[in-house]
Amino acid sequence: MAASSSQLKKIESRIESLSETLSKGSGRKPLSKIQLNNMDSSRVSKGHGAFGGARPARTAESAGVRRVSSGRKSGATFATKSPVKAVGASSAARKSLGNKSEAKAPGSGGLSSNRRLSLNDFEIGKVLGKGKLGKVYCVRHKQSGYVTALKVMSKKELVDLKLEKNFRREIEIQSNLMHPKISRLYGFFADEQNVYLILEYSMYGELYHHLKSHRRFNDTVASFYIYQVASALEYLHSNNIIHRDIKPENILLSTDNNIKLSDFGWSVRVAPDAASKRLTICGTLDYLPPEMIESSEHDFSVDIWSLGILCYELLVGKPPFEEIDKNSTYKRIAKVDLKIPSFVSSDASDLIYKLLQKNPKKRLPLNEIMNHPWITNNMPYWPTEK
Ligand SMILES: Nc1ncnc2c1ncn2[C@@H]1O[C@H](COP(=O)(O)OP(=O)(O)OP(=O)(O)O)[C@@H](O)[C@H]1O
C-alpha cells in the first residue's frame, strides 16, 4: 500500500491545487440576473420526467405530509412513527425499497400545477434549518393543505458564491426524480430577492444529527440505512445520474426511518455510454475518492466509494480518513490508509473493504452490496411497520 516518494510528491502538489479548487469553487460561471429573474415553477411542472413520462401533479408522498404536527422528535435510534398518516408511503420500506407505488400520483391538482406559485400561496411555519444560502422553512400550501419544506435562497448569494450551476443542477436533476428514497422537488419560484425550492418535508431532519446524538449505530441500524441509500443510488445510476455528494448531512429522515436522499447540487447526468467519465472535483473532503484526489477521471463508482465511507462513519462515528488537517486526510485517502476498529463486525468490515477499493472497477456493484451478508443477515431485524 505504501506510496513511493515520487507518488507522494505528485499527491502533495495535487493536494495544493485541490485545496485551492475546493475553497474557491470550481470556476463556475455566474448566471445573469435575467436568467435568475425568469425562473418560475412552470419549468419544473411542465418538464417531462427525464426518465420517461410527465411528473404527476400529486404524489402519495406529498399526500402523506398533510396535517403534520409541528414538533420534530429526534433521538430514538429508530424514530417512533410520526403523527403523519402516510398515504401509501413507506409501507414497503424494509424489503421492497424500490416499490414504485410509493411515488405514484393518486390524484391531480397538487403543488405542481402549471399556475405560477408565490410566497403568498404558503403559510410559513418554523425554520427547519439553515443552509449556505438561506433558511429552510416548514410551510403549508394554503390551497391543498400539503406541508412541505421551502428552501429560500438569496439570488445575490447564489451569484456571489458562484453556485448558480449547482443550483441549476439541483433543479434540473431533482425535479425529474421519483423514488421513495429520494427527496422530491415539487417545484420552484422566484421573486426579486430569492429563489424558493418546494421540497418534500422530512420531519426527522438530517441523518448526521441522529448519528451525532447516538455516537455510532449498531449493525442493524446502519445496514438499514445503507440498504436504503444503495437502493436510491441504484435508481440514480440506472438513470445515468451520479450523486457525487453522499454523506450523512445529505440524507434526511422521514417517517419510519425512511431515508430521503437530498442535495443534488453536485450531481451530474452522464451519457448512457459506460465509457463517459468526469473530471470535476466535487463533494466533501472526507468523502472524496482517490481518483478525484489524483485528478483521474471518475464515474458512477465514486458513489460506491462514498457509500463505503458512509458505512464506516455510521458504524464508527467518524469517517475513516479523518485527520486534523486536510492534507493528511488527502494523503490517507490516496493511500487508502484504512484501519477498521475491532468492534466493527467481520461482515461489516468485509463490505467496507470491498467498497473502499482504490481501483474503481474493483468496488462492489450496488446489486451485490444489497445482497451482501451484512445486509441480508441484518434484514430480519429491521424495524417493521406498526
Ligand atoms: N426537505 C427537508 N425537510 C426537512 N428539513 C430540511 C429539508 N431540507 C433541508 N432541511 C433542513 O434544513 C437544513 C439546511 O438545508 P439546506 O439544504 O439549505 O442546507 P445545506 O445542506 O447547507 O445545503 P446547501 O449546501 O444547498 O446550502 C438542513 O440541515 C436540514 O436540517
TrEMBL record:
SMART domains: S_TKc
Subcellular location per the Swiss-Prot or TrEMBL entry: Chromosome, Centromere, Kinetochore
EC numbers, comma separated: 2.7.11.1
InterPro entries: Aur-like (IPR030616), Kinase-like_dom_sf (IPR011009), Prot_kinase_dom (IPR000719), Ser/Thr_kinase_AS (IPR008271)
Domain of life according to the entry: Eukaryota
One annotated GO molecular function: ATP binding
Pfam families, alphabetized: Pkinase (PF00069)
Membrane-traversing stretches: none
Catalytic activity annotation: L-seryl-[protein] + ATP = O-phospho-L-seryl-[protein] + ADP + H(+); L-threonyl-[protein] + ATP = O-phospho-L-threonyl-[protein] + ADP + H(+)
Protein kinase domain mapped to chain residues: 122-375
Keyword field: ATP-binding, Centromere, Chromosome partition, Kinase, Kinetochore, Nucleotide-binding, Serine/threonine-protein kinase, Transferase
Glycyl lysine isopeptide (Lys-Gly) (interchain with G-Cter in SUMO2) cross-link, chain position(s): 247
Region (Disordered): 1-112
GO cellular component: chromosome passenger complex; kinetochore; spindle midzone
Main location: nucleus
Active-site residues from the entry: 245
Sites where the protein binds ATP: 132, 151, 249-250, 263
SUPFAM superfamilies: Protein kinase-like (PK-like) (SSF56112)
Biological process terms in GO annotation: attachment of spindle microtubules to kinetochore; homologous chromosome segregation; meiotic spindle checkpoint signaling; regulation of cytokinesis; regulation of mitotic cell cycle spindle assembly checkpoint; regulation of organelle assembly; response to mitotic cell cycle spindle assembly checkpoint signaling; sister chromatid segregation
Keyword ATP-binding tagged: yes
Compositionally biased tracts (Polar residues): 34-44
Family affiliation: Belongs to the protein kinase superfamily. Ser/Thr protein kinase family. Aurora subfamily.
PANTHER family: SERINE/THREONINE-PROTEIN KINASE IAL-RELATED (PTHR24350)
Record protein name field: Aurora kinase
Annotated organism of origin: Pichia sorbitophila (strain ATCC MYA-4447 / BCRC 22081 / CBS 7064 / NBRC 10061 / NRRL Y-12695) (Hybrid yeast)
Gene responsible for this protein: Piso0_004554
